[in-house]
């Protein structure tokens, strides 16, 4: 009976939504492969699953996809950064576990 009581208290104090969310973690992801070994991270308070897409600029000025970084990120915002030779696009999500896997067009 005590175990059941503790389980109910734990469930009420720790919403399952916070516990259940996980994300992919990889420093260099490209064409469906993680080159340093795919890992996972579990979301903490104020964290999001994040995909950082890295693009390089061609001589003609077009951006060409290079690779992605997958992680758990605090206070994540969808944003684009422009540098003189590359563009970084950050995409954040929390709608489901492992939502930060890049989708090809």
TrEMBL record:
<dbReference type="GO" id="GO:0005615">
    <property type="term" value="C:extracellular space"/>
</dbReference>
<dbReference type="InterPro" id="IPR016054">
    <property type="entry name" value="LY6_UPA_recep-like"/>
</dbReference>
<feature type="signal peptide">
    <location>
        <begin position="1"/>
        <end position="16"/>
    </location>
</feature>
<dbReference type="Pfam" id="PF00021">
    <property type="entry name" value="UPAR_LY6"/>
</dbReference>
<feature type="domain" description="UPAR/Ly6">
    <location>
        <begin position="21"/>
        <end position="101"/>
    </location>
</feature>
<dbReference type="InterPro" id="IPR029691">
    <property type="entry name" value="PATE2"/>
</dbReference>
<protein>
    <submittedName>
        <fullName>Prostate and testis expressed protein 2</fullName>
    </submittedName>
</protein>
<dbReference type="InterPro" id="IPR059168">
    <property type="entry name" value="PATE2-like_ECD_3FTx"/>
</dbReference>
<keyword id="KW-0732">Signal</keyword>
């Amino acid at each position: 009976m005590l175990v059941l009581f503790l389980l109910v208290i734990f469930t009420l104090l720790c919403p399952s939504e916070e516990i259940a969310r996980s994300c992919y973690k990889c420093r260099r992801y490209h064409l469906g492969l993680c080159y340093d070994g795919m890992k996972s991270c579990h979301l903490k308070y104020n964290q999001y699953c994040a995909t950082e897409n890295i693009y390089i600029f061609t001589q003609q000025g077009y951006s060409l996809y290079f690779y992605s970084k997958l992680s758990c990120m605090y206070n994540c915002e969808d944003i684009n950064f422009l540098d003189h030779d590359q563009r970084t696009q950050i995409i954040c999500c929390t709608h489901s576990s492992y939502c930060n896997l890049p989708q090809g067009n």
